[in-house]
Amino acid sequence: MAGNFSFDQLKKAVSNGEIDTVLACIVDMQGRLAGKRFLAQYFVDSAHGETHGCNYLLACDIDMEPVPGYKAASWSKGYGDFVMKPDLSTLRRIPWLEKTALVICDVLDHHTHEDVAHSPRAILKKQVKRLQERGYIGYFASELEFYLFSETYESARKKHWQGLDSASPYIGDYQIGITSKEEGVMRRLRNEMEAAGIPIENSKGEWGPGQEEINVRYAEALEMADRHVILKNGAKEIADSEGKAISFMAKYNYGLAGNSSHIHNSLWSADGKTPLFFDKKADWTLSSLGQQWAAGQLKYAKEFTWFLAPYINSYKRFQAGTFAPTKIMWSEDNRTAGFRLCGEGTKGIRMECRIGGADLNPYLAFAALIASGLAGIDERLELQKPFVGDAYQASRLPEIPKTLRDAAETLAKSKMLKQAFGEEVIEHYVHTARWEQFEYDRRITDWELHRGFERY
Fold this sequence. Notes:
Layout (H helix, E strand, L loop, with lengths): L6 H9 L5 E7 L5 E7 H8 L3 E4 L26 E6 L5 E2 L6 E9 L11 H14 L2 E14 L3 H6 L17 H5 L2 H13 L4 E6 L5 E6 L2 E2 H21 L3 E3 L13 E9 L18 H12 L1 H4 L25 E3 L6 E4 L7 E4 L8 H17 L25 H9 L2 H7 L1 H19 L4 H7 L4
Parallel strand pairs: 1-6, 13-14
Antiparallel strand pairs: 1-2, 3-4, 4-6, 5-6, 7-9, 7-10, 7-11, 7-12, 8-9, 12-15, 14-15
Helix pairs in contact: 3-10, 6-7, 8-10, 10-12, 11-13, 12-13
């Protein structure tokens, strides 16, 4: 069960006064929760069937600015409604908010009640269905990294996001002593996420001052994506309540490590009991199915990079010697690789995609990895030999797109993704990428002012 709270339990909790608010949330293109706060009794009586929202929510940028040029929604079409249909299996208590429950909604067409094709959850559901039709379950896990600051969001804004005090003054990667000082937020994050039905395995210090990593227990792809977005939203809310701030930017500081979202993925039998990637007699103990899956992800990595790195800032993270990959290749347990084989020799064998930043939308990222993996299976691709050594120094390996512009134009040409997602869906997100590039291209940055105000 995705959530930890049945509808009957909600009704009981509402009647005895334990819950008075229900958050009904969709996931927007940026991977954020957007929706309404319902009086709990009204949700139980009526809104659990459906509610409505403006369709511009899937046609705007990160600033909530309505973006011109989308076919799906525009001023000329009047920015009408879509249906927000609560998926009651995702219902859960939210411990860090008083007397509050949360449910994730699917986005449906207002007239046909069919899934809105370009909504992130619908895109992933379509790829999950393709797995199910073949008798597979895709298990996914995303490792989220973020920076924790001894600042409020208000104080960070007043400082113009410069000279911020991180929760720790120096790198504390795996160090217990320094991360003990960050436990005010991190203990709450682990325990309250667990209480919200999001099982946490561990947290640890990462390779930057005040940088953290939190690991959620793997799950079926759709459930894992739901966990991911609730975790990100909740982490900010918990930090804010403690007078702290969290950033999931891929690269908030040029001189420090970036924030990644490594994605572990594997296929299992429909009953979830048999690992389909494990074959103790195969090369690397990776079954032929697993090898084809991995080969597909390698072949199409350039085409789906935008789904792992959707912003201008995302591409600042791809720097040599920073544990962020720069090359498209795979290796056995090698952190310079774009793809790493983990769990070799065990039933937990899986591929880890290391390209994505913490700013990705998990529904889009998971869907792209599934689509490319299935393409590898359908095309019966052969997996190349694993790379050995320092991938940063290997000049002949294919490179991850270096800029958002490169990734957007590569996505626009992808026949595989157009077939898997639908041409209009790809067109929608290519337009999103091009708008982000357009907005950046016409802005003056602090770097330009510093470099050229006096010297040009």
